[in-house]
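User: For a benchmark we're assembling, each entry needs the component sequences followed by a predicted structure for the full assembly. Here are entry 17's components. Please fill in the structure.
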Amino acid sequence: MDPFIRHTGVSAPLLRINIDTDAIIPSREMRLVSKKGLGEGLFASWRYVLPDSREPNPDFVLNKPEYANTTIILGGNNFGCGSSREHAVWALAEYGIRAIIAPGFGAIFYQNCVRNGILPVVLDNETVQSLAAEVEENPQVHQLTIDLEQQTVTSFSGAQAKFEIEAGHKEMLLKGLDSIGLTLTFEDDISRFEQADGAKRHWL
Amino acid sequence: MAKTLFEKIWDAHLVKALPDGTFLIYIDRIFLHERTGSIALQSLAEAGRKVRHPERVFCTMDHIVDTFPGRGDDTVMPSGKNFIQATRKEAKAAGITLFDIGDDRQGIAHVISPEMGIVQPGITLVCPDSHTCTQGAMGAAAWGIGSSEAEHAMATQTLRINKPKLMRVVFEGELGAGVTAKDMILHLIGQYGANGGAGYAIEFAGSAVENLSIEGRLTLCNMAVEFAAFTGLVAPDQKTYDYLEGRTYAPKGKDWDEALTYWQSLVTESDAAFDKEIVINASDIEPTVTWGTSPQHAAGISQSVPALESLASDDARTAAQRALDYQGLASGDALAGLKIDNAFIGSCTNARIEDLRSAASILKGRKVAAGIKAICVPGSQQVKAAAEREGLDKIFEAAGFEWRESGCSMCFFAGGEHFGAQERVLSTSNRNFESRQGPGTRTHLASPATVAASAINGVITDPRTFTEVN
Ligand code: SF4
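Assistant: Structure for entry 17:
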């Protein structure tokens, strides 16, 4: 996974509250035996004119030319609530989203983001709104910069907000470790366990 | 300090207490199936990671595979064939053991794992399937996980988890005639709610549990997850050892003796503490049937659909009202006598040989009522073969049941075969959620004996009215 240290990018506001994982990736889009191939289905119900078409809905924020190459989403509260499907995060990652800034996240979705290299940033509603207002003036130019080491979000005009993140999550994202990678940093402990246990329960 | 069975297993698998408050727990065996295992194996390979101990990973085809006689890779489930073929390819590449279509060991994961001695007392076993708790009946810590966790377990042979709280559910006394493990667990959930076990590892104990066969204990533990528990388990005893001895993956010779000594230490000490204890008088339990769309909507077969005012909370009343609308029932409707359209005997809950024998003892020499669609899906090919050796298939077929190849079949609906909308199904499976067995289908859960008796009468029937029941 790509480490997340510092990232600057185009940010798209999707400020409605309770955007659930079925809105992020409708279940009908989960057809393949894969975590891949989901990017096209991202926000499919909003992004395309008809449910099963691929004709872009010009009114949807990610389809507007000024939001081309969006890598950051500014979301409403309880972003990613609903079904536990990890496909929602796989779809966001494949589309190119690196971070989501919102007043709050669905708990499993938050975990899934960290596990898949997407930084979930919690900032209060007012701050998210004011970042969105600045971005909207000129999205391609008014990009946001997120510095995970410093735990800051800085707008084009220089407004800065600090955010909190759990140390374990921060480390995983900074080092680009998925949870498997993180656990493998305990390889010595696992091997030692296996040796001792293998002597005890050798019949397994 | 005196320890419970679960704590002993936990401590024996603790690799490391992690700084974030979770625990790195060693996982002995991993079971996969084609619905989620395919994705887990594939994405592990794509990430360039290896299965750490392929000899500890087993995979079956149960969820998507067809259960029609003469089946191949084609299934009625949309794009099901892709999952089957991807699983076969990935399992081969990863070097894990696959019980494929056509293999006489194939069957539902939670049926074949005990059957082959893959799950054993004192081990940790995980599977990306919520009913993995079934296997706790062998005295193991076995629980369901997500697809990413399955990858984690395969790559590291560990999981990072929080320690569950501990509960003991004691069934004291003797079960009445015609009352089964399925009735015990439905009774428990009916009394304490579908959320009653949330956050707990539950040890089932008491004389009525000790008196259950291993298969009965598997049925009991199967629905621990419907009680929202982390898992359920039963302490191993002589029945467990007798069941295991000689099975393919059970230890042999000198290993057996050493394993046995270890297993015998796996009991809850008398002064060990639980965070919660529930005691149920086994003789209070009747054959039990669900009326609504949650397993907690359960009642004894002599009862009626309860009055909504009798329910504890507003939420419960709202849910029950919605359930009644969905099920086409009203408070006060008697359960016995409700007309059914379908009978389903199958699933990881109740499709083992004793379940089929119990149903067959009622079906023998009888026919299902006119218009009833009745299906029996053995839980594994070995169960199917054993049943055929005893001639049970002939009894089922003569009674008007379809006799299928093993698999999950119509226990759940994911786009494939299903029962009709508004049709009432009496089912030996474990979930009666809305549309679980087909869009709009009305599911009632019960034991194999109750399903067999009801299929004959065409209405929900107390199996004790058939004298052959033993
Ligand atoms: S039989 Fe039903 S409950 Fe059991 S594993 Fe299969 S689908 Fe799940």
